[in-house]
Each structure stands twice: as C-alpha cells, then as structure tokens.
C-alpha cells in the first residue's frame, strides 16, 4: 500500500495502528462500568467511521466502487447503500455533523434522511432546516424505530397549517399508486389446493381483513365449529374465513362475465345429487370437485348447479330475441368449454357467444347454432365476412 498522503488517509492509517496495539489485549480486567463506557465509545467510533466511509464513497466513481466491493468482499447493494447515504449527507449537513461526532448511529441517520425526503418538494428551505434540526435533537432520546414514527408526523411540527392539505394530497397519491401496483396471482397445484399472492391498496386490505374477522368472531365460530373454538384468529382460521366469504358471495353482487353471473357452474348428475352415485362433478372451469362438496354447494349462492335429468330450461328462442339468454350461455359454455377457434384456450367467461348463422341474416338465437369465440377471433370472423 502506498504511503498515505491525504489527511483522511493518514488518519485512517493512524486508527489502524492504534487498533493494532489492542488486537491481543484481554478484557477480563475491565470493570462493568468501564465495559459499558467502552461499548458506548466503540459505537460512537463506528458511527464516525461510517460517516467518513459514506463521505469517501460519495466521492468515488463507479469503477472505484466496483473495486472497493470486490476487495472487501461486500455485496453490491451494501456498497450502494453507503454511497447513497454519502450523497444524501451532502445536503443534510446537520445529520452529517451529528453522525461525524458519533451522536447518531447509521440507522438513525438513514431514518432522518428518509423522513426529510418525504417532505413536500416545494416546502420552504427554512422549514426543511427546522425539520432536520428537530429530528437530530429527538435522536438523542429515541432509537431509529421511534424516529421513523416521529418522521411520519414531521410536517405537524414544522408547518402545522400545511398538514391537512399535504396529507390529503399524499393520501390521494399513495392510493393512486396502490391501484396501479395492485396485482393478484393464483395457481392450482393439481392436488386440491391453490396458492397465490396479492397486492392491494391499504383500504381494500383493511376491508378484506374486517370481512374475514367477521367470520372468525367467537359467536360465529362457536355456531359453526362448536364450543371451544380459538378466540384469536390465526392464518388457518383466516384462510377458512376467506373460503366462507367466497362461498357466500352471490352472483347478484358481481358483474356478469360472458353474459352470465361470475359463478362457478358445476355439472351434477341427478343420481349424484340424490346420493345414489359417487362420481366426480365437472366445473365449467375445467376442474373437478367431490360429490360431497357439490351437494353442499348446490344450495349456495356462489354456485349454479346444472342437474342432468332434472327440470330443463327453454334453450331455443328462435327469432324472438337477438341476444342469448343466461341459460343458453351457460349451456353453450358447458358444451364448448373454451373458444372454439382451433388452438385458442380462452375460457368461457372471457368469450362472446357467436351466431353461426348471423341473426341479421335470419339466424336463430339458440344453442345449436351458437358457439364461443374469444373477442379477437370473434372480430376476425366478422372481418372475414
């Protein structure tokens, strides 16, 4: 290593030399009071070193950062965190001074920087300075966790007259971002279970949680599971509550898909419904359920039973109306299972019901002369004709 030239390099070298003198020193003779004091001073020393590290990292170029990470065997994210802190401290002089003096630890400094970054971009610089000074002062008595909470209400301290308007604007922005970020993924493992993840706005998460808790309250659970049901709902209880919620949602509460309610249609042979036959029942989604579950769900609002051999509905309307009825759409979906264009696997709920003989040219509105086509193939068919 070259002889240190810069003041910072010289100081680091001296620090190494001093630490070398205590590498083998035993701690058995330290008193409890001296041990406590020394630990505090070591923590302050680490904070001062961290500020110096962040300051030098902010000065380094990309190639230097890569070399630093490689030679010290650090992961790239750790190096980038230090560099970002150094860049932030350039404009947060009070935080930098407190960290350099050992009056903050890195976690506190990062929380303060993050809280200041959340202030309105057009806030008066004098108020930003006041906010920084306030959090640095609070850091003398509070750890990073409490500082994070104080940071969320920072505007109330420095600009109480702006709080309501800013909070409303911030909430609107967060809600809009949350809707954009909303997603839902689910997959069937082929063994009777589905697994998934979701991201939804906070309001909808709170509403869903409240719905599930309604199913897990003590009175409801005692009525459905018997005495002795656990009072505190855990993941399993909430999972069962989600299943019950899904079963209780009626098709009248949901928008229609493909001309019918968003319900699961199950084909149940009459002998199965009457418990004279044990046979799996087919869902219009392509899955299967046990006859016991089919019988239980047959009377629920979330499932439409199509009983083979039972009372039928009128499926042939001839020329009386142009659009297929709900019963006709269900019958067509059960027959076709998917878009009828070869190679297309779009499910019935996302398909249109197409007249093979166009209604405008005298075609009837019935099941025999209709089939499922997804929107793309439906449009392509009419472009051809």
What is the gist of this entry?
The chain is an alpha+beta fold and 385 residues long. The chain has 17 helices and 10 strands.
Strand content: 5-15%
The helicity comes to: 40-55%
Structural class: alpha+beta
The low-confidence runs, each spanning 5 or more residues with pLDDT under 50, are: 308-317
Adjacency order of strands in the biggest sheet: 7-6-5-8
Q: Could you tell me how far the N terminus lies from the C terminus, measured between alpha carbons in angstroms?
A: 81 Å
Instruction: Specify the number of helices.
Output: 17
> Overall 3D geometry?
elongated
Q: Characterize the largest beta sheet: strand count, sense, and whether it forms a barrel.
A: 4 strands, mixed
What's the mean pLDDT score? 81
Total strands: the figure is 10
What is the CA-atom radius of gyration, in angstroms? 34 Å
> What is the H/E string?
HHHHHHHHHHEEHHHEEEHEEHEHEEH
């Amino acid at each position: 290593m070259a002889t240190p030239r810069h003041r910072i390099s010289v100081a680091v070298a001296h620090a190494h030399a001093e630490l070398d003198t205590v590498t083998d020193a035993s701690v058995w003779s330290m008193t409890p009071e001296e041990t406590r004091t020394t630990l505090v001073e070591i923590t302050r020393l680490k904070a001062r070193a961290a500020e110096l590290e962040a300051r030098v990292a902010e000065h380094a170029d990309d190639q230097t950062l890569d070399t630093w990470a490689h030679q010290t065997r650090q992961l790239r994210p750790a190096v980038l965190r230090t560099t970002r802190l150094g860049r932030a401290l350039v404009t947060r002089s009070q935080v930098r001074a407190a960290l350099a003096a050992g009056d903050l630890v890195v976690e506190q400094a990062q929380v303060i920087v993050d809280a200041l970054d959340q202030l309105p971009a057009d806030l008066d610089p004098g108020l930003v300075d006041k906010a920084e000074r306030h959090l640095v002062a609070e850091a003398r008595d509070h750890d990073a966790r409490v500082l994070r909470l104080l940071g969320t209400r920072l505007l109330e301290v420095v600009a109480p007259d702006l709080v309501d308007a800013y909070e409303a604007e911030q909430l609107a922005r967060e809600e809009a971002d949350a809707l954009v970020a909303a997603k839902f993924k689910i997959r069937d493992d082929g063994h009777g279970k589905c697994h998934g993840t979701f991201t939804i706005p906070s309001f909808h998460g709170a509403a869903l949680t409240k719905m599930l808790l309604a199913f897990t309250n003590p009175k409801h659970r005692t009525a459905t599971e018997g005495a002795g049901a656990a009072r505190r709902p855990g993941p399993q209880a909430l999972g069962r509550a989600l299943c019950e919620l899904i079963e209780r949602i009626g098709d009248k509460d949901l928008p229609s898909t493909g001309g019918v309610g968003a319900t699961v249609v199950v084909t149940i042979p009459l002998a199965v419904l009457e418990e004279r036959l044990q046979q799996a029942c087919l869902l219009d989604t392509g899955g299967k359920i046990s006859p016991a579950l089919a019988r239980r769900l047959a009377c629920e609002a979330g499932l439409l039973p199509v009983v083979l051999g039972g009372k039928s509905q009128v499926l042939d309307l001839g020329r009386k109306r142009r659009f297929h009825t709900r019963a006709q759409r269900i019958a067509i979906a059960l027959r076709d299972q998917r878009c009828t264009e070869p190679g297309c696997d779009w499910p019935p709920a996302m398909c249109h019901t197409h007249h093979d003989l166009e209604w405008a040219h005298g075609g009837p509105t019935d099941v025999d002369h209709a089939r499922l086509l997804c929107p793309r193939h439906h449009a392509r068919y009419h472009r051809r004709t």
